[in-house]
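In this notation, each integer encodes one residue's backbone shape. One such record reads:

___
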Amino acid sequence: MSATGNEGRESSRELSRIVNFSDGVFAIVITLLVLSIQVPEIPSALVAQGLPSRLLALGPKVLSYVMSFLVVAVYWMAHHRVGR
């Protein structure tokens, strides 16, 4: 094998490592985003009356998560396009 062939394999392996590392970083970012959404605490006697209003109160956080998720997903897809 030629030295050029070994260099090509090494650069391909290095690129693969970088892509895998960045995939892990994106996965961690998406996981951290969802941690801000917490299950509301409602006394068991008031669940039927209080649950709908508490879930609606979570709407802005859920919307924020969805928008952030989409932004991170777009960056992740763009990153994979550049890596090819």
Observations:
- The chain is about 80% helix and 0% strand.
- The CA atoms of residues 26 and 58 lie 24 Å apart.
- The helical segments are 3-34, 47-57, 59-83.
